[in-house]
Amino acid sequence: MTNSRIVITGVGLTAPNGDTLGEFRKNLLSGVAGVENIETRYMGTVHAGVCHFDPLKYQKKKALRIGTRAGSVAIYCSREAVADSGLDWDGVDKDRVGVYLGVTEHGNVETENEIYNISQFNYDTRYWTHHHNPRTVANNPAGEVTINMKITGPHYTIGAACAAGNAGLIQALQMLRLGEVDVALAGGVSESIHTFGIFAAFKSQGALAHHVDPGKASRPFDRDRNGIVVSEGGCVFTVERLEDAQARGAKIYAEIVGYAMNSDAKDYVLPYSVQQGACIRQALKRAGLEPARIDVVNTHATATPLGDEQECIALREVFSDCPDTYVNNTKGFIGHAMGAAGALELAGNLPSFHDGKIHPCLNVDQVDPKCEVNNLVVGKPLEGRRVNVILNNSFGMLGINSVLIAKAYVE
């Protein structure tokens, strides 16, 4: 493995409140949420973060009929990331491109739909689609990207629950340093709002958010928070070795300087602050940074009572002596985009390197005393800051934790 510096040269995304990084960032700074009410099978009205990108921008109608929503999200984001990177795509050796996409789950939507469809025909499996298997294999979203973009290098998804967005980028960094690929398309995607099962499960756990105003339903750190808003979305980064990006004169959003993943080894669902804190410290060690060097911590906080509390315990332990480290959160704007969450949340903060602004948390009317942390940005953006280093937390079920540290690029 080489010690090559790894940089982000392109960003493609779709979020419930924006289909480009510029639109997404503008709405994060302006306090515009993207949560609405939808109707879901067997449950009626639920709050959800819905994306409104145009899938026909990069796909034909036939491909949409054969493929999946997650695949369409992945294709849209990957195409946008390549366009944003300035790569001469026709001249790129497709054998040397890797696709690494984090997912929370995959296949639920298609299986639920097929069971419902054959229920209308007395469960006669003759009506079961022959597209079901390629739709539901775990590598589907990344595989759909390779078919659409004629990529012949490696592709796979990284199943890492809600830590998956960071995990996709970590995998890309490692494969670039190993010399396995020269360009990586990496990040995370989610089609979660199209499965009633995820809503039903969170409701049975008492963890599904509800509010008279859907735009105020996702309330991380707020005293009156009452659960998760499920969202779809995606974010894919073009990732390269620094020397390759420099050779073609690419613009550089950020350098990935630190990362870590670990496990709680404790519970199926409940988070554990001790291992979350350990993951943060491991990423800092790998980056060669003291906690005080972090300018922005984007939190994972999903608006579940215990989840937010445990993360704040970890933050207080690691950053207690860091007067210039600020803390924000993105899920108040878009809900929880599951496998895409970490990647979207990192992307929304990257412009801070250039505009000196830190977007706030949304829907925090009164901070829960158990979630008190230093320098929580609430209400309006913090402006006029010099932001050099961003730390991004993403944690998931079965006790999987991921942390990624991005730094403003300096030659």
Question: Can you offer a commentary on this structure?
Answer:
The protein has 411 residues and is of the alpha/beta class. The chain has helices spanning 21-30, 61-66, 69-85, 108-119, 132-136, 140-149, 164-178, 196-204, 242-247, 273-287, 305-319, 331-334, 341-349, 352-355; strands at residues 6-14, 35-40, 44-49, 97-103, 155-159, 183-190, 230-231, 233-241, 254-263, 296-299, 326-329, 389-396, 400-407. The strands form 2 sheets. It has a 10-stranded mixed β-sheet, with helices on both faces. The chain has a 3-stranded mixed β-sheet with strand order 2-3-7. A hairpin with a 3-residue loop joins strand 12 (389-396) and strand 13 (400-407). Helix 3 (69-85) crosses helix 6 (140-149), helix 7 crosses helix 13 (341-349) and helix 10 crosses helix 11.
